[in-house]
Amino acid sequence: MNNYFKDIILDVMKASDLVEIDKIQELWSGYGSILRFGLKGSDVSSIVVKHVCLEGEDSHPRGWNTDLSHQRKLKSYRVETAWYQRWSRSCDEACHVPECFVCESNDNEMLIVLEDLDRTGYEDRKTSVSIHEMKVCLKWLAFFHATFMGKSPDDLWEVGTYWHLDTRPDEFKVLEDKALKDAAGIIDQKLKDSHFQTFVHGDAKLANFCFSQDGKRVAAVDFQYVGGGCGMKDVAYFIGSCLHEVDCERYEAQLLDYYFQMLKEALEAKLKTIDVQALECDWRSLYAVAWTDFHRFMKGWSPGHWKINDYSERMARKVLENL
User: pLDDT of 181-197, one tens digit each?
Assistant: First the structure.
């Protein structure tokens, strides 16, 4: 880390020195890294630093190295900075997100200094989950969606999620499923036309949830693609990130019932004056549409991916038949 950023961290955290503890991960396509630092002389013992190099390294693991891809990533880091500076403090413990201590940029680098979730009780990362643990994440999503229901996504993505049709023309161009390709715009518009718009996390996969040791609480990270949209985008994507096709079908009704139960509680807790029954009716009808929207992206981006399965194909065909 250069001295410019180091001095900012020391000043903001009122620390005498900082020491790198470990590298948590490299950022996608070589755009930097996420690091954990220990602090000396500060009331906070450790922080997590997202250090972004805006030039990148053109090393996309699936070969999508284009200027459009690069510009999308640059915007995603600007959006994440705006999220932490303007919006994240609206989240309470029911949809916990890391506290942001400072965001800074210098030349072609950006720095986001965050709460170390390992230090504050969210130290467990999971690669597989039980249905109960999935429900903990769905409760987080319900309270997140309730918190931002009806808000205008200023300084964020106008339409959230990293697979949004308007931001993925390269993947759309190579999509070979003609029926899905022809209907992609209609599917996208149906999600946009929902009367109930909120903020979506935009990348609400299991890997972006950090659990407490007892598994009863979660926090979420990675807000590069947060923006406006129908909450079913997050719900469908999250469920698809946790379960294989047989279990997606087996648990779909149970998981959706639980999400809408939590959404009702969250809206009441947030004192939102909204027709909850109409919201549930609208969003339930869009669950398969949201699933199909992501399926469209996957079939263009990575045609051999495990998520392209019989369940997703059946879901998509049903949606296409009903358009």
Answer: 999 999 999 999 999 99
